[in-house]
């Protein structure tokens, strides 16, 4: 079965190495008619490969945030490392459950998007009913893993699953609330890592992580709006309530709060002052990507930019060294 998607004035679908590629254009004229194949062999993907892609293993890099609390506390003993590893695995399972549910709910909108139309559920590779079963199994598995490690951790996972289920069903269409909801997912990752490792969480830590999360989410929305223009509201209806100027204000304000709070915290502790430099440069570099409309996938921006990776490495070295001296 084929679905024809008319893509007016925003770009063209081309073929690079046998794969469809979306290329934006600046012309206001209609440029292409996209063709999406719906069926078992869409995108030439097997069912097993489609299930794996829907679980979004590339997105699991976000779950490295579970290590934020142990790193901030400077605690690296064996028990903490085991708890952090268990937290990463558990949250990856929970996040994959949300991805399965989200892709089923958004399947029709995804088929209109130049990139998301190739997702396995939207392309018909993974049946919607099977995806819902996978979502339920993964959610229960995540709750079980968390409870087996620390009962309190199951509560954090339960909150994450509940909030994101509401987001998939309704909250993504509620202006401002959807920004806060997505940002809360990053904050809950950091909180979960602290709970699994048995570490207390300071108010400084929570403010920095929460503000930085909002910085990245607002930057993501700004980039989506810049990339898709008027067509953005067809693929993400919530964007119709935002202007580029408002989103720019949110990511600039939240970035300022995150950086200022981190500076106040770092200068109170011995050996942490130098860590301000690479972190400030990383914020500026990431903001540059946002301003260019390139931060639609934050994890991809970080992993593909050697400057950001280098600054992250320098920050880690300085932070660990400062912790050792302190």
Task: Describe the protein in words.
It is a multi-pass membrane protein. Keywords: Glycosyltransferase, Membrane, Transferase, Transmembrane, Transmembrane helix. GO terms for molecular function: glycosyltransferase activity; transferase activity, transferring alkyl or aryl (other than methyl) groups. Pfam families: UbiA. The protein has helices spanning 47-54, 68-73, 78-105, 107-110, 120-123, 128-149, 151-169, 177-197, 203-228, 232-235, 244-266, 276-291, 298-304, 306-325, and strands at residues 2-7, 11-16, 19-24, 32-37. A two-stranded antiparallel sheet has the order 1-4. The relative contact order is 0.10. A hairpin with a 2-residue loop joins strand 2 (11-16) and strand 3 (19-24). It is mainly alpha-helical. The protein folds into 3 domains: 1-37, no CATH class; 47-199, UbiA prenyltransferase (Tetracycline Repressor, domain 2); 202-326.
């Amino acid at each position: 079965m084929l679905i024809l998607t008319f893509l007016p004035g925003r770009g063209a679908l081309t073929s690079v190495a046998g794969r469809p590629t979306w290329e934006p254009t600046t012309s206001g004229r209609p440029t292409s008619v996209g063709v999406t194949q719906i069926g078992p062999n869409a995108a030439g993907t097997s069912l097993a490969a489609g299930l794996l892609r829907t679980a979004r293993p590339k997105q699991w890099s976000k779950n490295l945030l579970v290590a934020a609390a142990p790193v901030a506390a400077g605690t690296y003993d064996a028990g903490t490392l085991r708890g952090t590893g268990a937290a990463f695995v558990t949250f990856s399972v929970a996040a994959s459950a949300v991805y399965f549910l989200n892709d089923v709910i958004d399947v029709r909108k995804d088929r209109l998007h130049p990139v998301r139309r190739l997702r396995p559920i939207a392309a018909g590779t993974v049946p919607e009913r099977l995806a819902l079963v996978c979502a339920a199994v993964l959610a229960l598995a995540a709750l079980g893993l968390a409870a087996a490690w620390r009962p309190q951790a199951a509560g954090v996972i339960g909150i994450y699953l509940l909030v994101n289920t509401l987001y998939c069903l309704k909250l993504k269409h509620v202006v401002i609330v959807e920004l806060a909801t997505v940002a809360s997912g990053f904050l809950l990752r950091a909180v979960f890592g602290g709970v699994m490792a048995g570490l207390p969480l300071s108010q400084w830590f929570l403010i920095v992580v929460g503000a930085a999360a909002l910085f990245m989410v607002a930057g993501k929305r700004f980039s989506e709006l810049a990339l898709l223009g008027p067509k953005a509201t067809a693929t993400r209806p919530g964007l119709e309530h935002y202007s580029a100027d408002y989103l720019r204000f949110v990511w600039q304000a939240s970035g300022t709060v995150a950086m200022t709070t981190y500076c106040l915290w770092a200068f109170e502790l011995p050996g942490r002052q130098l860590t301000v430099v690479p972190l400030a440069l990383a914020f500026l570099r990431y903001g540059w990507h946002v301003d260019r409309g390139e931060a639609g996938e934050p994890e991809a921006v970080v992993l593909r930019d050697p400057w950001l990776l280098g600054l992250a490495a320098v920050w880690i070295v300085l932070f660990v060294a400062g912790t050792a001296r302190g």
